[in-house]
Amino acid sequence: MELQAAGANLGSIRGALQAPYFYTAPNVARVNLAMEIPPESLKFNKDKGKYHANVNVLGIAYKPDGSVGAKFNDTGEFGFGKR
What we know:
The chain is mostly beta strands. The chain has one helix and seven strands. The longest helix is centred in the first third of the chain and has 5 residues.
């Protein structure tokens, strides 16, 4: 994911992002990240009559000098019952 983020190609998923922050100490900020992704942007697979999708997330926070200050990655798993 880091190689993709460093590449010149833009991603194909568009969403609304909110990143409110507050300082917990001098020069230390805590960020609560929230993002809405349109469901049609995700690929759902059907398994045993239920729909399932995984979303891989990579977050990188940069320092004012452009170096990496922090990063995280996570996977969100979504499962929906039969319709």
